[in-house]
Amino acid sequence: MDQDRSQRSDRPPTPVRLVGGDVPDGTAIEPKPGEASDVIGSVIGRRYEAIERIGSGRRGVVLLARDRLNDAQVVVKRLRTDEPLREAVGLALKAAELQASVRHPSIARVFEVGEDASGPYIVSEYIDGPDLSRYVATNGAMELAKAVELIGQIGEALIAAHESSLYHGSLRGSNVLIQDNGSLKVVDFSIAGLDADDEPRARRQDVRGVARTLCQLLTGVSRGTVNVLELPKSVRPVIRHAMGRSVASRQSTMELFLRELRASELEEGPLSEADLVRKGREAELSGSFAAMRAAGEEARQVNAESAEAMVLLRRADALEAEKNELTREVADRESSFDYAGALDALGKLIQRFPADHHVIRLAGQKRQRLAELTRLRGLGEQMASAGRYADALGSWQRVLELRPDDPAAQEHVRLGKRARLRRRTVATAASIGSLGMLGAAGYVAWTLTAKTEVPGLDETTAQATPTAPIESRPADFNPLVRSTETDEAVAVDDDDAVGKDARGGAAAAGIEAGTDLAGDAASADADGSADADRDRSAESFGEAVGRASRDADSARGHAVAAGAPGLASEVFELAQTRHQRGRRLADTGSFGEAAELLRAARGGYVEAAGAARARIASIESMIGRRELRAAGREIESIRSAAPEPLIDELERSAKLARAGVVELGPSWTVAVRYIEPGVFMMGSQADEPGRRSTEDLRRVRIERPFWIMATELTRADLARATGDVPPAIGSDLPATGLTLDDALALAARLTDLGPGTFSVPTESQWEYACRADSTELRSGMPAGDAAWYLASSGAELKPVGTLAPNAWGLYDSLGNAAELVIAPDLGHGEQVTMTRGGSYLSPASAVRAAARHELVPRDRGDARTGVRLLWTPDESP
To answer: What's the predicted TM-score (pTM) here?
Structure first.
């Protein structure tokens, strides 16, 4: 169903075709078979005019419609007719027909079950209220007494349905709607007409659904699993009974479940303050801050001045903050591809909060995957550090399968494939060389045998020419990390002297190991060849010093590229001093001491490069955790010391970390910017031009981070949110004429369409984001420099994002459209609402971060007013 919706969302609405134009009764021709019939304005069953699309699911789409006979609002569920769903749709239609005959105050009425050219549909009553899942998600977990009362209403409704052989089959909080008077309505029954043998199982399935709904009410968790230990102790047995794995082990009837539930609730009775405090402390031991907070609140109800209850509540807040911080650390480290760090943070999270259902779900999703990534990456890095890129290829390819966007894995796979290709090339060359040697040997043998067999052939002496062994350079190597085993081979390759002098390599190895070659020279003198050996030894020493010098030069280049001269200056300067002394000693012929100094210089450069990279990595880690303010300070502190490309890359990374995109539909995204917590001075100074009396200067702390739209909501966004076609001209202009109620409704609509939650910003959030850590006054600026106001706009709206953004990437926060905000009581009741930032018709004095405008009517839109919404991502990744 979601796929069909995505395919239709960008099509213009299908116009309603009338018979012969405007017929007297307005009857519309029904759609042709296969034609879309769930668009706004279409008529279903020649009677119900679709007004709004309010939901969709696997079996169909739900529409708010107008009954054209009595002008009443109804809900029409248009069912799909796909072959895989045919049986389920048939059961739903049969259940709806039976539900139409059931009368109970807590069961939604069904008015009609019909079918037109586009397929079957069900018409039921419209309940204008939230469902239980959304209610607890907004208001938090319920008290036990209230939850049992609501479950009682649901259970009584299901008892009446079961008496008519009607069963729900998939009861949860989202299938129970709350009316204005607080009573409930159960909707979406889906099973009817079962055989007598199947009815006991259906009854027990509904018992499980009611128990699951009770868990939602008591914990505030609408999805996923719930830890039974977080439930009140008195109801745990009845919940375990109803949620048993075996269907036969559950309560056989809804009456039995309700009887056990109400009896268990009465058993516990009211707890004393001491019992509640003890209950909260027990919850703290398991890391359940939700249960701690509930116990603390109950203790305060018993004794409003309970100091121990206040301690519990403060500890619960601290625990929640700790859990959120560890959860963020897991997500941040995983997003920066630090799998070992993410696994470590996840282990701390599980150890600290073993009873929290969010943590349990997160651990189930990530622990095994992170452990596998950590193992594979460690194995791959170990082999790559030894230069075995081809051998490491399999590990890195597996990392890419689990995490396709890992840049390190992508690079190592590229290197591994190249190394494997070189290895095969060398093997092929060796095979060809072997064949050549065999051919030469065969030729010699043929010649030697041929001269004895062919009379008159001249005698010749066959000489075999030795073939030099094939030497191969490693597929790749790191000049900063060279092992003893590769020094000789690399040196021979660098000097282009394959097989030239084996003793030269041995002498070089002797220098690396610190052996005394003078003793070798003395032995050579004893043999009568001292002079020749001394010459060869001196040549070998020179080769070793040359190799050490090249290593030091290469390491110095890497250290300079890493920014070591400024970021690790002491270590770098010491290495540079050793480097220079080593060169001078080499020039005077002191090869042994020179080689040692040059190797020490290379090690110093490596250490300096590592220290510099560690400092850069710490800033990158801050950026990964979105501690952008601290990262900005660190970048400024190293700006004069680090190379300019590194600074540019860090600033680019910080900018990317602040930017985000929320996908709301096909080809429809909204750009958002991350705003981290902080403290700022809200209001204006007494001498600020244009200041109003309500702009008192005060210190405000923003406790939680949030995301906010980079631009004002545009006309294109508004059209897509309401199901209209975006205008061909002016789609990038701000959407204006909005009231605060319109803005709140739009936020709710966007929340339904995409991930996370949209909301209207508060005054303090808006001003904090607008100021972007700056106290700069923007009034009176030159036209077009920072804001569209009366002197610069030509008294007309401008496309969003035309002028430069503020430091946090927000466009048009001042001027263009005046932005609606949630403000405290303004002293006018509900009659007016607040806007901030001024508009394209405002004077320069009103286009300021602190300027407050209270003259927008609550019930009537204004041509100047728009909105910039906040976005809060889902809590669990």
So the answer is: 0.42
